[in-house]
Amino acid sequence: MRIRNNAGRDSTIMKLIIQLPCFNEQDTLPITLACLPRTVEGFDSVEWLVVDDGSTDATSTVARSLGVDHVVAHAANLGLARAFMTGIRAALERGADVIVNTDADNQYNADDIPMLIKPIREGKAEFVIGTRPISRMPRFAPVSRFLHALGCLVVRLASGTDIPDAPSGFRAFTRAAAERLNVHDSYTYTLETIIQAGSLNMAITSVPVRVNGQLRPSRLISSIPSYILKSARTIIRTFALYRPRQFFISAAIALLVTGALIRPWSSSVGALLLGLGVVSVVCAYAIEFLPARKRIRDDAKRQAGKVERSGQPSS
Fold it and tell me: pTM for the complete prediction?
């Protein structure tokens, strides 16, 4: 892949920054950093960036002592999604041409970083996600594998993408893609960024990657019911935010069908659902007209400005 510099000349991508969001990772960070590369084909420099998300241990101190190039710290624990976005912004400020995000618990095999960024270097993608071998990972019980597959299916439908491992945090972004990311959810960035990429028509793909042995239990998944509820909230909220018309159409279909089926047994509930379905249809079409109205207003303002300028006497 090639980029264009400020002078308009083509030049090879120069800098790769590998970012690691961390919270109390003083014990796992030395193992993870020992596996990270300092050279990657196609890059003149490879730098490491640690985001300390309000750790109460010596995460930042350990990171600096082990030669991490950039350490950015939150004053308090803001959550994984905020730490991820802090890292993205810090990497962009420090001149990253490509950003790789990985976990500080050494879940992902760092030897696969060249494979992860290969579609970017070849100009085939802006955003790449590493697909884990879920079926062979002991940490995923059968029920967890089923829920993982179901959740990924929902994300694929909501995003219009074909990513098989939506929760994977092993990711690579071009600078242009990273500049367009803006995570609103406070729980996790993984699902929202895929739906956002789909709505922005980013070139997104996935590659198979390997994983390492588990060093500690997941902090993101405290319990399966809690994880399901939080993930469902994230998917629904993000779907409504980035694809509002499709969201309301989907809601309308579900409400109208359910209302029609329930009405013979409960006319009041059925009528309520049918009414909500009609409202959802109206919302879907109303939302479609909002961008057009904005363009009309903007065009009117531009035309008014031209008329005003043309009416001014020349000096």
Answer: 0.75
